[in-house]
Amino acid sequence: MRKKCQKYQKQNKPVHRKELTNNTAYSIVAQYQSEFRGFAAYYQLANDLHRLNSLKWIMEQSLAKTLATKLKVTVKKVHKKFGATWTVDGKRYKGLQVTVPREGKDPLIAKWGGIPLKKRLQAVLNDQPPLIWPSRSELEKRLLADTCELCGSTDRVEVYHIRALKDLERKGRQEKPRWAKVMSARKRKTLVVCWSCHRNIHAGRPVMKPQTGSVCERRAGCAESAHVRFGKGRMETCRKATRQPPTSQHLAKGSRPYRRAYGNGYSIERTKRFWTDRLYSLW
Fold first, then answer.
1. pLDDT (tens digit, 9 = 90+) per residue, 60-88?
2. Element (H, E) at 158
3. Which positions ≥6 away from 35 have C-beta within 8 Å?
4. Which residues of 199-214 are buried (b: 16+ CB within 10 A; e: fewer)?
5. Which of 27, 30, 119, 141 would you label with 208, given CA atoms 20 to 30 Å apart?
6. Do the beta carbons of residue 30 and residue 110 sit within 8 Å?
7. Are 72 and 95 within one domain?
8. DSSP string, 70-104
9. Does 122 map to a domain?
10. Are residues 161 and 179 in the same domain?
11. Phi-psi region of 113 (alpha: psi -120 to 50; beta: other; left: phi over 0)
12. Which residues contact 94 (CB under 8 A, 6 or more apart)?
């Protein structure tokens, strides 16, 4: 039993479990109750089952401290908020209870306590419980959705990783970009993004907002128009990304291709063919 208590102690004192602070209060209480119920059920044929009261006290203190760490309150306020009493086999028990209301359904209830520590002579131990195949993890479900969580694109979906969440909360740093706010709100070190948003994050550029349109339009950066740079000149605004051929307006007088054609002695027809092929390659 000492080995079991070490999981909830540090220097012989009950402490919170940091790995559970990202879970909901309902999940935390349900996990503690499940762990203690399984341990008590295994030794229900023992004559000194009452010795598990010390383990129960240690787990209860660890549970309260874990909830206090998650909710950023004191242990006393945790007992005041979640404290409850109920009757089991004619005996009243005190413990913690978390209730999650649901619209149109019975509420979800997770309880801590209420497990009688009495010897059961008629108990049957099942050393070979049925196999329960684990369901898909949260990250696996996000990957199977095959959708960027920033812009909604489905083009070459990848996963962006950071080393630790504390890296997003550095002092003296400028306002966090949108991708960092999303990761902080979800408390996740991974973010499923498309290839374009992944490249913008690493380059320090702002990511696109969720928008509708084809993959070609989103890759161009705008759902209505695509911008094409001719050499080192100014940005020329192209028509909406359709499969129609470009017109001669892209080679208007004063544009970079027009000046290059006259300055280098090329013919207008040759220059038009060159830039027409280039515009087609962008589609």
1. 999 999 999 999 999 999 999 999 999 98
2. strand 158-161
3. 59
4. ebbeeeeebbeeeebe
5. 141
6. yes
7. yes
8. HHTS-HHHHHHHHEEEEEETTEEEEEEEEEEEETT
9. no
10. yes
11. left
12. 83, 84, 85, 113
- Alpha carbons 134 and 7: distance in angstroms, whole number: 24
In this structure, are residues 182 and 191 in contact, taking their beta carbons and an 8 Å threshold?
yes
The domain total for the chain is: 3
88 shares its domain with 15: yes
The pLDDT, as a whole number, for residue 59 is 94
| Range 85-90, long-range pairs (CB < 8 A, 24+ positions) | 86/111, 86/114, 88/114, 88/115, 88/116, 89/116
* 33 part of a folded domain: yes
Please tell me the predicted confidence (pLDDT) of residue 210: 61
**Structure tokens that stand for 257 in this block:** 């291709």
- How far out from the chain centre does Cα 93 lie? 37
Name the burial class of residue 248, with classes exposed (0-12), middle (13-18) and buried (19+) by CB atoms within 10 angstroms of its CB: exposed
Residue 185 falls inside a structural domain? yes
pLDDT digits (tens, 9 = 90+) for 120-172: 877 776 666 565 555 555 666 777 788 888 888 888 888 898 888 888 877 76
Residue carrying the six token digits 């149109």: 104
Mean pLDDT, consecutive 10-residue stretches, the chain (283 aa), reads: 87 91 90 91 86 92 94 94 90 92 88 88 68 59 83 87 83 78 84 90 79 44 41 42 46 54 51 60 53
